[in-house]
């Protein structure tokens, strides 16, 4: 696994859920309009 260092304000943990031809992760409404970074921390289940 690679190690990445990211400066930020808050961290949440969630599960990626399928949506149409892609997937999404839900974040709090108060994050609307903010820049975010998503880091995959496990191998996806096929």
From TrEMBL:
<protein>
    <submittedName>
        <fullName>DUF2080 family transposase-associated protein</fullName>
    </submittedName>
</protein>
């Amino acid at each position: 696994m690679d190690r990445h260092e990211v400066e930020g304000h808050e961290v949440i943990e969630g599960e990626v859920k399928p949506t149409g031809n892609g997937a999404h992760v839900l974040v709090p409404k108060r994050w609307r309009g903010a820049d975010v970074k998503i880091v995959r921390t496990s191998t996806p289940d096929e």
